[in-house]
Input
Amino acid sequence: MMQTVTVDTVLRALADPTRRAVFERLARSDEVNVAALTRASGVTQGAVSQHLKALKQAGLVVERPEGRNVYYRARPEGLSPLFDWLAHYDSFWRDSFAGLRALLQEIDP
Output
């Protein structure tokens, strides 16, 4: 059963700069194992594993075990709760830009 991930969970997962860097590295790659992520992160393997666990719980990464290795890849659709939350502010930005456009046309017809 797939649990519903909230925007709070996604924001909490991406709030940590190291975790965000791990997610960004995975988003730029096809699949990466923990050893490669550890080498690139500057933190311990245990810390990387904990960050991956949080990202996985937030629905932002998936894992694929292969022998003794586990490969991770980003799951960009996991950002959906964040995009849905930001969509509420779409009308604000649209109205603000429309007001700016009108102001600029008044200043420089």
Observations:
- DSSP finds six helices and three strands in the chain.
- Strands lie at 32-33, 61-66, 69-74.
- The CA atoms of residues 77 and 87 lie 15 Å apart.
- Helices lie at 7-15, 17-27, 34-41, 45-57, 80-87, 90-107.
